[in-house]
Amino acid sequence: MATELEELVGFIASPRPDIRLLATENLVPYSTSQPNIFKIDNLQPVKHLKLLIRDLPKIAEHVITILINLSADREILESLATDDKFLTEVFRQIVLPTEANANLHSMLLANLGKWDAFKNTLNKKQTPPDELSSDELVLNQLLDLFVKGASGTYNKGADFDHLSYLFADLTKHAEIRHHFIRKQEYDGVVPLNKLKVFTEHKSDIRRKGVASTIKNIAFDIPSHPLFFSEDDIDILAYLLLPMTGNEEYDLEETEAMLPDLQLLPPDKQRDSDPSIIQTHVETLLLLCTTRAGRDRMREVQVYPIIRETHIRVNDEGVQAACERLVQLLMRDEAEPGKEAQDEKKAITAAPGQTEEADGEDEDDDIVEV
């Protein structure tokens, strides 16, 4: 005999919208506390929910919220992340400038990115709305949504911040990392250059996701010259500014720093989240893999900034990462055999990372609503 909760789950398939609305609204709390009620009859409730993202906006709001929470379950995550028809509808809806649930779709996609094979769906293409000015590749459309969301100029009800977590997970994979450092034909822009400008954004979510994305892309060692090139990605200032405050440096140190790091305002504050600072330091560690990278950091006086970060940020993870970076920057390059050792040291320096560049620990968490 069905329980009351199972009967309530059954009502999400009611032909009456008022009943579907009541059922989905009341089921939201159970999507976190009792997710197994949605797994009965071979995931039949989940199949119904996937169809209901096309329902009336208020019903769809509850439905997407339930799916966000249910995606913490591995079996349900697979069901969602491998359903091509469902994903096609999610991608269609999220790019609509009038979509009321666009932010919820961003959270859902951030969770679906935890499924490794999800990377393949980003090869999908669809015709973008005229307002988006993007190309047919879904991944590029999501990147452009993310950029426009920062100013609220595309969809007044969405900032698309959680897409940064999706990018962080996708860049675990080499083919996606390569996409982010290749100039795109439709706009002539390197995707990473669209993201780097948000390392000092007001949104904690956006800063954290972008920091993790940059770090994962930095696992692509052959692309490091692009990271340092002023004509390509030129990433250093975007990594160093978040970890600088209003401290003063010796004139000789200041004059050698990057122009953006000189004469900072007296009210300049470093990022308030130590985990983000740690991520940026670990990215610098990865960029120390090559001799050219280390030499460039010495040339522009990265060491004094790391020294002050170590002193002023009272966090064990930050301080440990700073100490590893200092060891690489201050050592004698003349010592034989150090190049190969440094490559191995830099790649293994970031806790929780693999050669396929696992995402940051914070971003591995499933988003719940």
Characterise the protein shown here.
With 369 residues, the chain is mainly alpha-helical. 55% of the residues lie in helices and 0% in strands. The protein has helices at residues 4-10, 17-27, 30-33, 40-51, 57-70, 74-81, 84-94, 102-112, 138-149, 163-170, 174-180, 191-195, 204-217, 224-228, 236-240, 251-256, 274-287, 291-299, 302-312, 316-330, 338-347, 361-364. Helix 10 (163-170) runs parallel beside helix 13 (204-217), helix 13 (204-217) packs parallel to helix 17 and helix 17 runs parallel beside helix 20 (316-330). It is elongated, with a radius of gyration of 23 Å. Residues 348-362 have low confidence and may be disordered. Belongs to the HGH1 family. This is Protein hgh1. Residues 333-346 have a biased composition (Basic and acidic residues). Residues 94-278 form the Protein HGH1 N-terminal domain. Residues 283-336 form the Protein HGH1 C-terminal domain.
